[in-house]
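tool_call: predict_structure(chain=1)
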Amino acid sequence: MGLQRVKPHAEIAEVWPRDGRIRLVGHLHGHSGEGAWTLVLTRRARTEQRLRYDAHVKGDRFEGELPIADLAAADHAAVEEWDIHLSDGEVELRAGRRLDDVRGKKKIFVYPEQRTGDIGVRPYYTIKDNLSLECRTGAGGAA
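tool_result:
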């Protein structure tokens, strides 16, 4: 059986949700790390709304963090989702975790929720093993 090809992406190794921030550590897969990189959050319901944060890239290793307070949009719905990419200005690499043998991360990896105002923010893996953020209004609860 041949190796499955995995398209270029930002492979997540560590997710640290604490102290009002979410820190992400990983490596670039299938793309060189030269140049200035940015952590880009895209609001799924309104893709024109994007948040950008500096990412530190050395070789193929990256590290970046974001303050969860920035995710409290004035017009937020009860549940909002933000997708995470790493960008060098020319290419956007989807953040995810695909280079391990764990399938179905959405039900396996559960990260703690952090609160900012009346919104709870929690990183989660999608059914495609991409990393996204979920923001829920009101009392905490898991998806």
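agent: The helical segments are 105-108. Proceeding to next step.
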